Amino acid sequence: MDEETRAFHNDLARRACTDEAAFTELYTIYIEQIFPFVMKRVGHRETCEDIVSDVFRKVFLHLRTFNPKRSSFRTWIFRIATNTVIDHYRVNRNERKPSFVDLSELALHPSDDDSPHDLVLAEDQKASIRSCLTQLPKRDEEVLTLRYIQDLSNQEIADILEISPNHVGVLLHRALKKMKGILEPTTSTL
Predict the structure, then answer these.
(1) Under 8 Å CB-to-CB from 8, ≥6 apart: which residues?
(2) Could you give the domains of the chain?
(3) How far apart, in whole angstroms, are the C-alpha atoms of residue 160 and residue 102?
(4) In angstroms, rounded to a whole number, what is the distance separating the alpha carbons of residues 73 and 11?
């Protein structure tokens, strides 16, 4: 997210404390990001809808506590979403947690110019990535998803996970190294 957009969202959050239209605009912007973020973690539409509602309820109730000097609004709302999902699993300890990453988002989309051979290779690559991700620890899946699917910066991930940006970099490096280690034997046979 560029600095101009970040500043606009932070200003919108400030105005949303007293302006219903500003809050509606924030909701419209962030529902598109928060819903899939939560859905990947719970894997059940109705549960996701309940959690997302709770996230925006918390945002509405605590908007006055948002401090743009501490973090961006985007980081703040993702932190609320992360904590709300964690709270959900604390209360529902026996509920099965789905794989963190929605593997369909990692699909390599074929183009009309792809040959049948290219399509088979793309399917093999998708299968390898799926297999790899299911073998990674949840923390590695989480960091990779936040960075490469949600496109968050290391600082934003650090704020969400409450760790340092350097630690995020280390986690990303280790997760990618693990992924490479899992994928290398698979890709060498292609």
Answers:
(1) none
(2) 3-91 (1.10.1740.10), 103-187 (1.10.10.10)
(3) 19
(4) 9
Tokens in use for 157?
């991930």
Angle at 139 between CA 133 and CA 140, to 5 degrees: 45
Phi then psi for 180, rounded to 5 degrees? Answer: -65, -40
Around Cβ 95, how many Cβ atoms within 10 Å?
Answer: 13
* Residue pLDDT, tens place only, 125-169: 666 666 676 688 888 888 887 887 677 888 888 888 889 989 999
pTM of the complete model beyond 0.70: no
Contact, 110 vs 119, CB < 8 A? yes
Give per-residue pLDDT as tens, 55-79: 999 999 999 999 999 889 999 999 9
User: For the stretch 48-62, what's the b/e string if a residue is b when 16 or more beta carbons lie within 10 angstroms of its beta carbon?
Assistant: beebbebbbeebeee
